[in-house]
Design brief:
Layout: H1 7-15, E1 35-39, E2 42-45, E3 50-53, H2 56-59, H3 68-78, H4 92-104, E4 110-114, H5 117-134, E5 142-146, H6 155-160, E6 181-182, E7 187-188, H7 203-213, E8 217-222, E9 226-227, E10 233-235, H8 237-250, E11 253-257, E12 281-284, E13 296-300, H9 302-307, H10 328-341, H11 346-368, E14 375-377, E15 380-384, H12 397-408, E16 410-411, E17 418-421, H13 431-447
Parallel strand pairs: 3-16, 5-6, 5-8, 8-11, 11-12
Antiparallel strand pairs: 1-2, 2-3, 4-13, 7-10, 9-10, 12-13, 14-15, 15-17
């Protein structure tokens, strides 16, 4: 990927910088890409080449790069106040953002700010556990999550997750028994399959697992309908409805991790809307600021809030803080992003993009013979890479496709061998067509 002029930069970029989620030895043969700028759906490299951002830079650039309204909000806020602590003081931007987020979720009117997605999950679980204890349910000490789920990479978040690569390094003190997994989920290829609306065949086995764990649970946490890091798996909205009913009956909190699924990605403003449910706690990040700045929030209701409310001597306060919680810069940008997400035409464009993406990936499948069945929801499509009929291939096919696509003009970074597209929701015209062509050529080169 590098040119002769980049060699000095490559040395600098590898001398001290330890890159995220990577085997650093790979950088000897596939050096880092030197990003000079970015705009819309494209990242521009220092040598002038343009890459389609086919994965929205780890799923956060929902409105693309250099969005003018977000940039203007950032400049305006920076000219007034960049940051103050969120304790006995607040700014207009942070207050307005809390008001707007509260209006999105009927019945959930309290917003607690954090720093990033993993922080939001940590806050929500801590809040749930403490609320159960303060309510006299000290035996509720476990958190159930779903098979193939992913909730971040801090210690607790990794323990809640069920994706092997992200569970390494969990301290033995985090007993797996405290984080049971619900297995046998009703997966679907799209929301048009019958099981999407009726998962009654799978429910009895799931209910048995829930009833076994029920008395010890403080919360159930899940990614609503779409599981990202396990390969963009889609499960039935009916399961979400049934889990909401069961958790309410049992006095167990339902935590919706909308960090990746929120703000239009699945075709609804929030993925929980597919099931018509409101959880007890919602975790938000990534698209919250359109990926411009790190920020997260946990939205919850009056019942949990009231559990922590009382005189100082009662020692009931929710004692949690992040230095940059409620950062005014992030809040101002988030307000601008919410305005864009709530434009009447926004979800209409997402629906159009969803059709383009599925048609494009199905064309890739036909042209290469190297993909399994296409799955997806909203502006996310995925399929598992495999060797075409009559050809053998060695390991790390996904990594080879990633390199070949980058050479040809697209950032397509499979999860293992799960190839997916997740471009900005306002992707420029012609992006999907170009992404289709690049992916076809990249797969053909990779399988060789």
């Amino acid at each position: 990927m590098s040119s002769a002029g980049d060699e000095g930069w490559n040395d600098r970029a590898l001398a001290h910088l330890w890159y995220a989620c990577a085997q650093m030895k790979d950088y000897q043969t596939f050096p880092p890409m030197h990003v000079a700028s970015a705009s819309g759906s494209h990242i521009v490299l220092a040598d002038g080449r343009r890459l389609i951002d086919g994965i929205s830079s780890w799923w956060c650039r929902s409105l693309g790069h250099a969005h003018p309204s977000l940039a203007a909000a950032l400049r305006d806020q920076a000219s007034r106040v960049e940051h103050v602590m969120l304790a006995h003081m607040a700014t207009d931007a942070t207050v307005e953002l809390s008001e707007r987020l509260a209006r999105i979720f009927p019945g959930l009117g309290k917003v607690f700010f954090g720093g990033d997605g993993s922080t939001a999950v940590e806050i929500a679980v801590k809040m749930s556990y403490e609320a159960q204890r303060l309510s006299g349910h000290a035996a509720r000490t476990k958190v159930l999550s779903l098979e193939n789920g992913y909730h971040g990479e801090t210690q607790l978040c990794a323990a809640l997750s069920d994706v092997g690569d992200y569970r390494r390094g969990i301290l033995p003190a985090l007993d797996p028994g405290a984080f049971p997994k619900l297995r046998g989920l009703p997966y679907v290829g799209s929301r048009h399959e019958p099981e999407w609306e009726d998962c009654s065949a799978a429910w009895p086995a799931l209910l048995r697992q829930l009833e076994e764990a029920g008395p010890s649970l403080c919360a159930v946490i899940l990614e609503p309908v779409l599981q990202g890091a396990s390969g963009m798996r889609v499960y039935a909205a009916d399961l979400l409805r049934r889990l909401r009913g069961w958790t309410r009956e049992q006095g167990v909190h339902l935590v919706a991790d909308e960090i990746m699924t929120g703000f239009g990605r699945t075709g609804r403003l929030m993925a929980c809307e597919h099931a018509g449910i409101v959880p007890d706690l919602v975790c938000l990040s990534k698209g919250l600021t359109g990926g411009t700045l790190p920020m997260s929030a946990v939205v919850t209701g009056e019942q949990i809030y009231a559990t922590f409310y009382g005189a100082f001597e009662e020692d009931r306060a929710f004692n949690h803080s992040n230095t940059f919680a409620g950062n005014p810069l992030g809040a101002a940008v988030a307000v601008a992003a919410l305005r864009a997400y709530q434009e009447p035409s926004f979800l209409t464009r997402v629906a159009e993009l969803a059709g383009e993406l599925r048609a494009g990936l199905e064309e890739v499948s036909r042209a290469t013979g190297a993909l399994g069945p296409v799955r997806g929801i909203g502006a996310v499509v995925a399929a598992d890479l495999r060797a075409p009929s009559g050809k053998a291939t060695t390991g790390r096919l996904g990594f080879r496709v990633y390199q070949e696509a980058a050479r040809r003009g697209a950032l397509v970074r499979p999860i293992g061998d799960a190839l997916y597209w997740l471009p900005p929701l306002n992707a420029d015209e012609g992006v999907v067509e170009e992404l289709t062509r690049v992916t076809i050529d990249a797969i053909r080169a990779a399988v060789g």
